[in-house]
Specification:
It is a single chain. This protein has 312 residues and is mostly helical. α1 runs antiparallel to α2, α7 (191-225) runs antiparallel to α8 (229-259) and α8 packs antiparallel against α9 (267-292). It contains 10 helices and 2 strands. The longest helix has 35 residues, at 191-225.
């Protein structure tokens, strides 16, 4: 759809295709999913913040993951739920850019945070005697600050490049706003945006993947050489879970991003992979890490017992 639209125009997101009988179940499902995401992630944040025995590098790094998950869920679900109730898929241009910015910050943040967490496990398993020296509070804060700085600065630049254009179309091809779908609304030359977008994909996908491959190869090597069967089993279990979380996010994100650049790709699959990136990690991360990490699980159970009368 071609218009003389300006940056203040209303854009239309991809229709949800809900019948009148589907609206109430979809509203309930979306609301409950968002509430569960918010409750479980806030629970992890609260428990880590309030328990001094969890103030260790591993959990301080983990603390950043639910923050990122909350950002992503809040960027997506409230507007989705509102559009289900009102049966209106319109969104302002400025609100669309803001939603896209938050969603990209969330996706990038998760990849970078999971990478730093993998590095922490690498030091803990491969260099246990040097762990406290390497992962001291000063180095830990540097890692966290650098992670968020890379994330925010690269995403800010991406959307500054996008915001300088006016749109000539109004139909967003996805269920939510993102950089690629917004670029498709522009009729001017977007070569700089495309080159920078490809560079961010290469850096933010390739960098974390390279770090994960290297650290886990070293961890696997150390586990094979160790004589302690219990330590080997525990390390493989912890790292295996982490690897599954990372690769599922990486694969879905890469497909969702690359499919925008391939005309023959299925829009249905692209939207499905895009939605999976926004729904599953925020929903599953606190459950996976809360149940698989023994210390955190014990603290969560204790917190729930003391505050809401929960019994195991």
């Amino acid at each position: 759809m071609y218009t003389n639209s300006s940056t203040s125009s209303l854009l239309k997101l991809q229709t949800l295709g809900l019948s009148s009988t589907d609206i109430y179940p979809a509203f309930v499902f979306g609301t409950l999913t968002y509430l569960i995401i918010m409750f479980s992630n806030l629970l992890v944040l609260t428990v880590i913040a309030m328990n001094k025995k969890l103030h260790k590098p591993m959990f301080i790094l983990l603390f950043n993951l639910p923050i990122s998950d909350i950002v992503g869920a809040t960027a997506f679900f409230p507007h989705l739920i509102f559009s289900i109730v009102t049966e209106n898929r319109l969104i302002s241009h400025h609100a669309c850019i803001f939603q896209a910015f938050l969603i990209h910050v969330y996706g990038t943040g998760n990849l970078l945070i999971l990478s730093v967490m993998a590095y922490d496990r690498y030091i803990a398993i491969c260099f246990p005697l040097r762990y406290t020296t390497i992962m001291n509070s000063h180095n830990l804060m540097k890692m966290i600050v650098i992670t968020w700085f890379i994330n925010l600065s690269m995403m800010f630049t991406l959307f500054i490049l996008l915001a300088r254009f006016k749109t000539c179309r109004t139909n967003i091809v996805d269920f939510y706003c993102n950089n690629q779908s917004l670029v498709k609304l522009i009729c001017e030359d977007t070569s700089v945006n495309n080159y920078y977008g490809l560079a961010t994909i290469f850096v933010l996908m390739g960098g974390p993947l390279s770090l994960i491959v290297y650290t886990y190869a070293q961890i696997l090597r150390t586990c094979v050489l160790t004589n302690h069967t219990d330590a080997r089993r525990k390390a493989i279990q912890t790292c295996g879970t982490h690897l599954i979380v990372f690769l599922s996010l990486q694969i879905n994100t890469v497909f969702a991003l690359i499919s925008h650049r391939i005309d023959s790709s299925s829009p249905v699959l692209r939207r499905a992979f895009g939605l999976s990136v926004l729904i599953f990690p925020p929903f599953l991360d606190p459950i996976i890490y809360g149940l698989k990490t023994k210390e955190l699980k014990q603290c969560i159970v204790m917190f729930l017992k003391q505050n809401v009368g929960f019994t195991k």
